[in-house]
Design a protein that fits this description.
With 209 residues, this protein is mostly helical. It is 84% helix and 0% strand. It has 8 helices and no strands. 33% of the residues are buried.
């Protein structure tokens, strides 16, 4: 039971942090709330979160496949070194430039806001590898097993963590909007540091083995 609580809060936190930086999904949730009302913004957010549930489930089975084929993991770890290094530099330089960006949002009608949310979430191709990597790390830490209850907790935590951020954007966008530029800069520094941490963890895993 304890490992399920740890799994939930760890996954919820990871999903929350991944959704916090201003982007297509949360800014559209805010835009929908402003133009069509908060209820419609929540419906849009539910559509996004539903797709995240599906993507997180797919990520679990991808992680399970990789777990059963360790030779693939060894190859991916080597590729991950370059990927993490690239994004660490990218986010650091983005924070240094600190240019104020104007976020564009798609108009969402009340009738199909739920499906628009699902569609926009489906377009984000980084979600599946992100949750697949999380699942692999949690598995190494002993927080998750490939059992039904563990998978359900992982998937629900991913969806709820995402929805929590979208909910905040939906209801508190007016306050967040004035701090978006400063927050965007700080979030880039945080993401850069996170990439460095992941890079170090990957190197340790390779050399330790």
């Amino acid at each position: 039971m304890t490992h399920l609580l740890i799994l939930f809060f760890a996954t919820f936190s990871a999903a929350f942090m991944a959704t916090v930086p201003p982007g297509l999904l949360n800014m559209n949730a805010a835009k929908t709330s402003v133009e069509k009302g908060k209820l419609n913004g929540i419906i849009f957010s539910l559509g996004v979160s539903t797709m995240i549930l599906i993507q997180a489930l797919i990520a679990v089975y991808i992680s399970k496949f990789l777990y059963k084929n360790p030779e693939v993991i060894d190859w991916l770890l080597k590729v991950a070194i370059g990927v993490f290094a690239f994004f660490a530099i990218y986010f650091f330089l983005s924070a240094k430039k600190h240019k104020k960006k104007v976020m564009k949002a798609m108009k969402v009608s009340k009738r199909n806001s739920f499906f628009k949310g699902m569609l926009l979430a489906a377009v984000n191709l980084l979600t599946i590898p992100y949750y697949s990597s999380l699942n692999a790390m949690w598995n190494k830490a002993g927080w998750i097993k490939f059992e039904a209850k563990d998978i359900v907790v992982f998937v629900l935590a991913a969806g709820l963590g995402t929805f929590a951020v979208l909910y905040l954007y939906t209801f508190y966008f007016n306050k967040l909007e004035t701090k978006t530029n400063r927050f965007s800069k700080n979030s880039n520094y945080i993401l850069s540091a996170l990439m460095l941490v992941l890079l170090m963890i990957t190197l340790i895993r390779i050399f330790y083995k």
